[in-house]
């Protein structure tokens, strides 16, 4: 089949990509990890992680990433900065074109993650990780006995808002329509919850704060045009997730949201091509599930190469 540059190329250096690199390198595969920004992905903006096993006191996102990188760096793994411009994946030798060169590989793992959809309002980026969050599972305990604002109306928004009420004093759920999109059972639970108040026909127009973090959220009623500031220490945003799959569109099978479809071995519809972590159509997007995906994909890639 001619010479290839690598046994495995991993696109994305978040938890899924680094776990895949670790497993592949220990299996003595030649591995290259490509990352267009800094290794770490979403975990770099996660202030504190309390639900990753092995760290009883919790660990900051950047610190966990430093540990993962150090572990990968003990093995012969190249991690390079580069953005994928185009790909040819259906042949036995996979071709990946970067802006400055072309790489070939026997197998490819796409681990480019996903980004939470944004509101696009003032203060959102400024206070991300300092009061603005997209993960109740991760951050709810930091808002114990506080007032928070949540944004959205789908299953995730309602489910996560209900989860928040275990910790916080009050949740204002802001929804732009006059009824929720969430399934009926979740709607019923939300309406029965004393700590949860739904602000109908409303949008968030600004997130305000000071040096310590968020202290108010500006809400506008779309029908009356009236705006008001809600004193709050946090704002949780659940208006969808966008997979980072722009470069892969047309190359592999995706669901209607653009998440890559895989089987239980994290195989895509193209032999020798895998997807791992948040980029995949998965029921849970957490560090722990991402690293599991990376391990499974790398293990299958190893068997795929052995069978060639």
Quote the beta fraction: 25-35%
Radius of gyration equals: 21 Å
Largest sheet: 7 strands, mixed
Shape type: elongated
Low-confidence segments, given as residue ranges, are none
Task: Explain what this protein looks like in three dimensions.
The protein has 6 helices and 17 strands. It has helices spanning 15-26, 61-73, 136-139, 155-164, 184-192, 287-306; strands at 6-11, 31-35, 77-81, 84-88, 94-98, 102-110, 114-116, 132-133, 147-151, 170-174, 196-199, 202-209, 214-221, 227-231, 234-237, 241-243, 273-275. Strands 1, 2, 3, 4, 5, 6 and 17 form a 7-stranded mixed β-sheet that branches. The chain has a 5-stranded parallel β-sheet with strand order 8-15-9-10-11. The longest helix is centred in the C-terminal third of the chain and has 20 residues, at 287-306. The model has no long low-confidence stretch (mean pLDDT 94).
